[in-house]
TrEMBL record:
Residues 1-24 form the signal peptide. The keyword Manganese does not apply. SMART domains: LRR_TYP. It comes from Esox lucius (Northern pike). It comes from the Eukaryota. GO terms for molecular function: potassium channel activator activity; transmembrane transporter binding; voltage-gated potassium channel activity. One of its GO terms (cellular component) is voltage-gated potassium channel complex. It is found in: Cell membrane. This is TIR domain-containing protein. It is a single-pass membrane protein. Pfam families: LRR_5, LRR_8. Keywords: Cell membrane, Disulfide bond, Ion channel, Ion transport, Leucine-rich repeat, Membrane, Repeat, Signal, Transmembrane, Transmembrane helix, Transport.
């Protein structure tokens, strides 16, 4: 009772403080926050936040609607209304001398530079997005617009038509390191690259350009004929290129990039051959979208040539994986195989023995709706020591005993589908498994030996199952490392008016070591046999 009282008391005090703060500064379109946690729309800060935050919404006129904002704000998020929003002058922001972070979502006809070398001199992060616009915002941005932003190190521009900006729009920003160009409605990569050429300090680059179909060599007017653009990109440590449906890659088109952090695109068999000739030497993560039937061996050929470490493979075309296909994929460390549609996939085949070839793979995720078996271990002569994390979305309803027994170093297992039957000892052998996520399945019974052998299990999630009125006594008692359990919603048969759950009976001695036990009953009375402090 005393505990409860104290909690209520604290809440009252917090509420009062909050009211005082809000009363201290009232504004029709902006809210001020001391802490990012108080902020409902904190996404605009991308995880960054130091100091005082102002968030303004439904803004139609920046100068009018932001009038009277405290001048010592450090972060400013502005969300404009959907209409086209006139001219924006960066000069307006010079009154906020401590501004470090500026995020604006809106479309303007023009952005005017500041004529003042002191303006925005503390700005480090700027993001300009025109999220509401279909297509791209045609915004006129002239030469050297961002010149005086001496501290600007991180710039994102998204959904602004780049060809409406001056070729040297990014000239003279001395410390710009990270640049992200979201969709910019250009068909020619050189429209982007030639503008980036002015950013001598660039180290991190993300380009997303869904509209580009052919990757050609860039020909930038600012470069002399015997100058190459490579030196500007020499200091790039991270570069990600995200395309849509490319149809042709010219030889040398990506010469200025040697190493890519990420390359994402639809690729056909022909492009898989063109990509290694593009000038790219290495790709860390390849996100592949299949636009036709493909032999997985040609993917592995690319993996080999470009030292790819992580592969995310998406296709809706039938595909075969087995040991036979993956020889050249031995360098992979992480694989995600995904389908988005169901209807094509009925002939695809997965033979799980491919895992025994891929000895560097620590992470494997497979999403596949066909009736493949999940025969991971029966053909393995040696234990699979390299796999740590396994995530499966399969069309399999049944786990048999010892199903995972060869995965001796597995730490994390997630299975999400229609699993309804788990044979006793199904998880035997998973001695090191710490996280087991069986949420969103069709499990109705937990038996005393269902989880037998999971000595290291810390975290167990059984939410979103039609479970658990059928949990046998002692089902969890042998899980001696268990700390967090999520049973979710308990469904008792309708004819029983009260759900009875004797926690001592199912958890035994380990009940006292749990730090988290999550149970809900869907509006029906619930009786719990022992009170736990949660
Ligand atoms: C630039 O990007 C890299 C990688 O995403 C990140 O680690 C770094 O903190 C970023 N730097 C700035 C100034 O945002
Ligand atoms: C800076 O840029 C990188 C991309 O290069 C991005 O991942 C990161 O989130 C940005 N940081 C902030 C604080 O905006
Ligand atoms: C790339 O080159 C091809 C042939 O040389 C040409 O048809 C295509 O239009 C070019 N693409 C761009 C974006 O310039
Ligand atoms: C690359 O970085 C080095 C060291 O930070 C710097 O001296 C050099 O000027 C940079 N190169 C370019 C093209 O900016
Ligand atoms: C070509 O490069 C040389 C040095 O490699 C330089 O002296 C010359 O001025 C350059 N020519 C042009 C047109 O820039
Ligand atoms: C597998 O990983 C090890 C250790 O990181 C590395 O030395 C080896 O080269 C990798 N194998 C392949 C084929 O890349
Ligand atoms: C769930 O399992 C029951 C049998 O236990 C079955 O009748 C039902 O069709 C299953 N539901 C789904 C979505 O697979
Ligand atoms: C719950 O189970 C324990 C162990 O079997 C038993 O001692 C206890 O009486 C039960 N509690 C209730 C309320 O049924």
């Amino acid at each position: 009772q005393g505990e409860k009282m104290r909690v209520v008391f604290f809440k009252t005090v917090l509420l009062l403080l909050w009211i005082l703060r809000v009363n201290g500064w009232m504004h029709s379109k902006c809210n001020i926050y001391d802490y990012v946690d108080d902020m409902p729309d904190r996404d605009c800060l991308q995880g960054y936040s130091k100091g005082l935050i102002a968030s303004c919404k439904y803004v139609t006129d920046i100068e009018e609607d932001l009038h009277g904002l405290p001048q010592n704000i450090n972060n400013l998020c502005i969300s404009m209304t959907m209409d086209e929003n006139g001219i924006m002058s960066l000069d307006f922001f010079s009154q906020f001398h401590d501004l470090e972070y500026l995020d604006i979502n809106g479309c303007f006809s023009q952005i005017l530079p500041t004529g003042n070398s002191q303006a925005l001199s503390n700005l480090e992060y700027m993001r300009l997005q025109a999220l509401w616009v279909t297509g791209c915002c045609d915004c006129n941005v002239g030469s050297n617009t961002f010149r005086y932003l001496v501290k600007l190190s991180n710039l994102t521009i998204s959904k602004f038509r780049l060809s409406s900006m001056a070729p040297d729009v990014f000239n003279g920003i001395p410390n710009l390191r990270n640049v992200s160009i979201g969709n910019s409605c250009v068909k020619d990569l050189s429209e982007i690259l030639c503008r980036l050429m002015y950013i001598k300090s660039l180290t991190d680059l993300v380009i997303e350009a869904q509209e580009i179909q052919t990757l050609n060599q860039s020909n930038c007017p600012i470069l002399n004929t015997n100058e190459s653009m490579t030196p500007v990109f020499n200091n790039l440590t991270g570069c990600s290129l995200i395309f849509g449906e490319i149809t042709h890659i010219e030889e040398g088109a990506l010469d200025c990039f040697k190493n890519l952090e990420k390359f994402s695109s639809y690729l056909n068999e022909e492009l898989l051959l063109q990509l290694p000739l593009s000038g790219i030497k290495q790709i860390h993560l390849l996100r592949y979208f299949g636009s036709e039937h493909i032999d997985f061996r040609s993917i592995c050929n690319l993996v080999f040539l470009l030292s790819i470490k992580k592969l995310e493979f998406n296709t809706n075309y039938p595909i075969s994986f087995s040991m036979y296909h993956v020889d050249l994929c031995v360098g992979l460390e992480s694989i995600v195989l995904t389908r988005t549609l169901h209807f094509y996939t009925s002939i695809s085949q997965i033979k799980w023995n491919f895992i025994s070839t891929l000895k560097n793979v620590t992470y494997l995720s497979v999403y596949d709706r066909t009736e493949n078996s999940l025969d991971l271990c029966s053909f393995q002569k040696q234990p699979i020591t390299w796999l740590n994390k396994l995530v499966l979305y399969l069309n399999i309803q049944f786990f048999f005993s010892n199903q995972f027994s060869c995965l001796v170093n597995l730490l994390y297992l997630k299975y999400k589908s229609k699993l309804s039957n788990i044979e006793d000892f199904a998880f035997l052998g998973l001695r090191l498994l710490e996280y087991l996520d069986l949420s969103n399945n069709n499990i109705t019974h937990i038996h005393a030996n269902t989880f037998y052998g999971l000595y290291s299990l810390i975290w167990l999630d059984l939410r979103e199952n039609p479970l658990i009125h059928n949990t046998e006594a002692l089902s969890f008692t042998h899980l001696t490392s268990l700390r967090e359990v999520f049973l979710g919603k308990l469904n008792s048969p309708l004819r029983e008016p009260v759900i009875k759950l004797n926690l001592t009976l199912i958890f035994g001695d380990i009940l006292s070591q749990l730090t988290q036990l999550y149970i809900t009953s869907s509006m029906r009375p619930m009786y719990i046999g022992r009170c736990v402090e949660i």
